[in-house]
Each structure stands twice: as C-alpha cells, then as structure tokens.
Amino acid sequence: MVSINEALEIIYNKVIPKSKEIIPIETAIGRIVTKDYQAIFDLPRFNNSAMDGYAVKVDDANKIVQLKEITYAGDEPQELFSKGEVVKIMTGAPTPNGCEAIVPIEDVEVLKDGIKLPKNIKKDMMIRWRGEDIKSGKTFLFANTKITAYTLANLASQGITHIEVYRKPKVVIFSTGEELKAHYEKIELHQLYNSNAPMFYARSIELGCDVSYLSSAGDSIEELKSTILSAKDADLILTSGGVSVGDKDFTKEAFTELGMKTLFSGIDIKPGKPTTFGKLDNCFVVNLPGNPLASMVNFEMFVKPTIAKLSGTKSFYHAIITTKMANDYRLKAGKNSVILGEWNGDNFSPIVNQKPGMVSPMSRADGMVVTTKEIDFLEKNHSVKMIPIKINLQSEKREDFFIM
What we know:
By secondary structure, the protein is an alpha+beta fold. It has helices at residues 4-14, 149-157, 196-206, 221-231, 251-257, 292-311, 360-364, and strands at 20-24, 37-38, 48-49, 53-56, 64-71, 85-89, 101-104, 109-111, 114-116, 127-128, 139-141, 162-166, 170-175, 180-181, 192-193, 210-213, 236-240, 261-265, 276-280, 283-288, 317-318, 321-324, 329-330, 337-343, 348-350, 367-371, 377-378, 383-388, 394-395, 402-403. The chain has four domains: 4-19 and 168-313, Molybdenum Cofactor Biosythetic Enzyme, Chain A (3-Layer(aba) Sandwich), CATH 3.40.980; 21-43 and 134-166, Molybdopterin biosynthesis moea protein, domain 2; 48-128, Molybdopterin biosynthesis moea protein, domain 3 (Molybdopterin biosynthesis moeA protein, domain 3, Beta Complex); 319-403, MoeA, C-terminal, domain IV (Beta-clip). A hairpin with a 2-residue loop joins β19 (276-280) and β20 (283-288).
C-alpha cells in the first residue's frame, strides 16, 4: 500500500502522452500543443491609427490646417505630408509617412477655411506601432499549453492554419460484476444499475478524452481477460469493481495474468483504499473500487492527473483553492480522509452523510479536502485547501493540499 503522495508521484513520473497529430486550428480547442510557435511577422504589421481622426504634425497644435486627403483601413500608406496639412484617417488605417500623432476626430473643429487643431498634441499619441503587440520571431504559444479560443486569435493573426497537438487520450471503461446492468436494461430485485461507467464516461469526455464503453465484463477470469484484450490498444483502461477481496473479485488477477505490471496496489486513503494502478504493454490501467462515491473520489484524485499527463499538458498537478470551513465537522482520526463538500465561493460545507456506497452526494460536491491521519475535528472558519471538482482547474506547480 502506498500513500496518496506516493501514488501521485508514480503517476507524475510514469505517465507520458503517446502520439501527436496535425489538425486545423479551428478544431484544436482544448487540445495541448506539442511545441513552441514563433511569430512569422510583426503584429501590427505596420504603424496604424488607434482612432478615427487626423494624422498631424506636432508643431501644428492650435493652428488651422488644410485637409490633404483621406485614408481608410486597407489602403496603402499615404505619401509624406507637410506642416500645415493633415490627413483624415480611419481606425486601423496605415499612418501616412511623416505622421507624428493622431488627433481624435472629436477634438478638432472643422471651419470653412480649414481644420482647427487642439492646443495640446503629444507626439506619437493614438498611434499603434508596428510590432508593439507581437514581434517577429517572438514565441507567442508555448509547448504543453492548452489551446483556447483566444489562442486561435494569435494563430490566425500569423496566418497559421494547422497546428501540431497531442492526440486525445483514448480511454476504455468497463465494470465488473454480474449483478450490474446498464441503465437502459430491465433489472431484477437482486441486481443494480451500473452508475459508475456512465459517470466515468462523461467525466472523461469533460476532461478531453476519446472514450469507449464496454458492457459489464462479468465475474469470471476468462470473461475479464477477453474484455481486457479487446481494450488494450487504449491509452488508459479504467475499471470499477472487483478489486477488493471477495470470492469473485478477479479484476487484478485477470490483468496480472495478461502481463500487467502493477505500479501500486492499495492506497492509504479513505474512501477508496483498494485502488490499483498499473501498465499493460503501452496501456495504463486504473482499477477503482465498485462503491460509487469511493470510486468517484479516487477518479478525481488519481485518474484526473493521469488523463492530464496523457494529454500532454504541463498543468497536471492538483490546483487548490484556499477557503474556510462553513461549520464544525467531526471525523474519525487514523486515516487520510477525503471529504466532499459544497463551496459557495466563500466557505466549504462538508456534505452530511457521505458514505462510500452512496451516489447522491457526488452531484452536490463542488470540491474535496484531504485531512491527515491526526485530524479528528475541523472547526468553523478553519482554513482548508480545497481541490475543485466542478471547476476544472489544474496547476503547473505542485502544492500541498493536506489539512494538517
């Protein structure tokens, strides 16, 4: 059995993304870029006006000047103009040669005999300079970062149409247990609907994976082995159930007989102690307990960073939100405990009656806090470090999330 931190350290060190692909930038939202991208040219590409106004000479302040011409966005830069002249210019239009400042259109007075400029004109005002946003050759997108809609603006501004990203992690999910039935099937009184597989299917999609779901694998070793072999081309096989010590808990045994190397088996955590992490050829394997809440807690604690590592991001550590307890809370000392709770942006309220086999607390949980073995009481307003669940935050920096 390993500690929570030891389990995470194994995941951080062992899991790496598999392969790359080149895709159009419009389809790259949420993907992780594989390499740095440098600007091909300056942005802006030329000096231009930040406002609708007049291109002027500073020495013409407080004088009546003559309109030489008008230039619009998309026009080529105008020729040099002289003192006593101005060029009317629209936002985004290239500044004329010799332009020293742009005076906003509302700051001038149009007279019969010319245009009266204001008293105060500062040199370079209202001019957007070539390269002031991005210089040619500058790295504007760094490897192992997530593509967002705003990243696309940078890429498109450089005329980049395709980008190299890590392939989405391929996840295969199945559950064990002959008592389990899919939620669309009819069940008998002695059977249960499988809530874990749909939950992890949806959560894996939320985390950016390509996901496949295989129906319940049954409880015999041969049935399990057959299901495993059909799934081993994935990046990650995720199972729930069959990892405890019951007569038909054969999941670990089936994977072991097929050659899985166990990296850890059992974690000093409550709930979810019987969690196993291993590798079968090039596929990582996580065997979660069958109890829904226990498996959900361990998914968030260990599977989420596994998926993050497989995706190629450098933000694979658990992010934490420092908050405070909304009320007093008692718990049993002696174990590293994970407590699910609701968070209103100001304080953390532990969910009352959260047991490993329950389903209902999971949808209410905004985050979770982790206590050390010595903790048996958390008082109201005590500072706690919450790992968010509903807000998908991850960190590039490893932080200690235990409540001491």
